[in-house]
Design a protein that fits this description.
With 601 residues, the protein is of the alpha/beta class. The protein is built from 20 helices and 21 strands. Helix 12 packs across helix 16, helix 13 crosses helix 19 and helix 15 runs antiparallel to helix 16.
């Protein structure tokens, strides 16, 4: 028997020459499912005797229906795949029956679908060989020095939580650890091959005490070799001082851009529905203060469309995050219907009135050149029994405004000023801004409102391309809508700030304070062109905002103040600015200029 086995995981991860392959195994997820189906079908047509195996998250945990839908598939492995795959290969090699292979679906000689009677396989022992340390990728890297490669490192597997929107939540895996020798060996491999970006695949990095040893080793590697340059991880859901300490070490050595303090939702009803437990908001406020004190920027993640969420609870939740001191990046994602998540079950859909839509997937920060590739799709919630379609559009538009104008810095200081000086809650400030834009469509705010509301309306009807935004002035990049809103407004920042007083008059602020506040905001937000070298004010804005951003009650004092900006400030073009500050730097917090000097008197 000629035993030629090829495993395919990513799209375009490399190339190989097939010569009468015996078996090809595909590891499937939402970003490669259609591509793998097309490739597998083409392989089967060219080599009818080649066995095709599908495994991964896009194989249903229970149902073998994909065998019926796609005749070119010979085997399905459900859930964890390594042990069943090994046993399948041994059974095929020894020409044994397949009934003892766990978690396997296949066809018998009569064409009937068979699901293995064996119990599901679990990863009771993580002793699998590392593809990096066995040299699997060495030749590919050596032969392609023109590419910058990234790598994924898994230090443990499993998740102790049961979030219904996650396709791990329905099985509630216990944690299994990769040997520390392997983890450190892979970090050394990254350094030897000058891998700049390492992504941690753990569901809850920082949940184990040994994770600090891993961070220390990453830091030592960068100090010794310069690599890896960045380490990105999904940190433990219940953030604590340990996670803070890890982020502090990573940030101190430039290994990460910010710490995730994720909530998904702040509504108690939603959290109960999806089986998630969050930090108490007061504890969250304390943690944000600690992160600010040690200079580690924090960002948060939310989902739109979770069951039980209303427009009011969603916007109030965002306002609560800002009030707790999280003025950095905010990532908001549509709630996705993953194949094996409890959220996707018929029971859950009916109970919460979930209406979903399938749209083509466009990769955020991807290239518009990829539009001609085999399209991938994803399904997301666009309506529930507590959030009708109109509210879903409004909620997403609200989050986009906050992401673009607050998290990226165009209005951060102004919103913070009104929160502390005039008790205008953040959700009210940005809701008022949207209402003003809707009523004044000839202004820049109004034009942008119509543009981005149109994006969400088209998205809600199935146009997946509208979840990203392309403008060649900002480079060959598909931008998420929050970043795109910031760039479109920043491109016309002079007009933006000149028109803003008409909106702010409703808050009855002294004209002298308002004009200088606007000038201060415009001066400190990071834009490609530097401001005037010296900016003078009659009020102590730097002291006020320093106190406010520390989470302490602030009061604006009348005091002669000047900002002195360095002469060597870079004049970036818009493409470079968008890439360096809005893409790479988005999780560092509001884009405020650094390095200016404050002089009093």
């Amino acid at each position: 028997m000629r035993f030629s086995i090829i495993c395919a995981q990513a799209r375009g991860a490399g190339c190989c020459i097939l010569e009468e392959p015996y078996l090809i195994a595909f590891s499937k997820y939402v970003w490669n499912y259609e591509y793998h189906k097309a490739l597998a079908k083409a392989i089967k047509e060219r080599w009818p005797d080649c066995l095709i195996l599908f495994a991964g998250h896009q194989v249903h945990n229970e149902s073998p229906a994909q065998l019926e839908e796609h005749l070119f598939i010979d085997f399905l492995i459900h859930e964890a795949g390594e042990i069943p795959f090994e046993q399948l290969l041994l059974a095929l090699l020894q020409d044994e029956g397949l009934s003892k292979v766990p978690s396997l679906s296949y066809r018998d000689v009569a064409g009937e679908h068979i699901r293995s009677a064996q119990e599901k396989a679990t990863c009771k022992s993580i002793g699998f060989p590392s593809p990096y340390l066995t040299g699997l990728f060495d030749k590919m890297i050596e032969e392609h020095p023109e590419f910058l490669f990234a790598m994924t490192v898994e230090t443990n597997r499993g998740c102790p939580y049961s979030c219904s929107y996650c396709d791990w939540g329905i099985v509630r895996h216990e944690l299994h650890l990769m040997p520390m020798e392997r983890v450190k060996g892979e970090i050394d491999w990254a350094a030897r091959h000058k891998i700049e970006y390492v992504y941690g695949a753990d569901a809850n990095f920082g949940i184990l005490e040994r994770d600090e040893e891993i961070v220390n080793y990453l830091v030592e590697s960068k100090l010794r070799t310069g690599y890896p340059k960045k380490f990105s991880a999904c940190f433990a859901k219940e953030s604590n001082e340990t996670v803070l300490r890890l982020n502090q070490k990573l940030s101190a050595h430039g290994l990460n851009n910010g710490a995730s303090l994720s909530f998904q939702s702040l509504s108690p009803a939603v959290l109960k529905n999806v089986g998630r437990k969050n930090l108490d908001i007061q504890r969250f406020h304390e943690l944000v203060s600690l992160y600010n004190q040690v200079g580690v920027p924090g960002y948060s993640e939310l989902m739109s469309g979770l069951p039980g969420e209303t427009f009011e609870s969603f916007t109030r939740g965002i306002g609560s995050l800002l009030a707790a001191g999280l003025h950095g990046a905010l990532e908001v994602y549509p709630c996705e219907m993953l194949l094996n998540a409890e959220l996707s079950s018929p029971y859950f859909r009916e109970k919460h009135g979930i209406e979903s839509i399938r749209v083509r997937r466009f990769q955020r920060y991807g290239s518009p050149e990829n539009k001609d590739e085999i399209p991938e799709y994803y399904e997301f919630v666009r309506q529930t029994n507590t959030m009708p379609l109109g509210d879903w559009i409004a909620a997403n538009l609200f989050s986009t405004v906050v992401q673009g104008f607050h998290g990226l810095g165009l209005l951060t200081n102004i919103a913070v000023y009104f929160y502390w000086e005039h008790q205008v809650r953040y959700e009210r400030f940005y809701s008022d801004l949207i209402e003003y834009a809707k009523a004044n469509t000839s202004t820049l705010l109004g034009e942008l409102f119509l543009l981005f509301e149109g994006q969400y309306r088209a998205l809600s009807q199935g146009d997946g391309e509208k979840l990203v935004y392309y403008d060649p002035r900002f480079g060959e990049v598909l931008w998420p809508l929050g970043g795109a809103l910031f760039l479109c407004a920043a491109l016309e920042s002079k007009r933006f700030y000149e028109e803003l007083p008409a909106f702010l008059r409703q808050y009855a602020v002294e004209a002298e304070v308002m004009s200088q506040l606007l000038r201060y905001q415009h001066a400190v937000v990071h834009l490609p062109a530097p401001p005037l070298q010296r900016q003078a004010f009659d009020f102590d804005f730097p002291g006020f905002f320093s106190t406010a951003f520390a989470g302490k009650p602030a009061a604006l004092q009348k005091k002669r103040t000047a900002l002195i900006f360095p002469e060597q400030a870079l004049h970036l073009n818009w493409e470079d600015f968008a890439r360096e500050y809005v893409w790479y730097g988005r999780r560092k917090g509001a884009l405020e200029r650094k390095g200016f000097e404050v002089i009093y008197g």
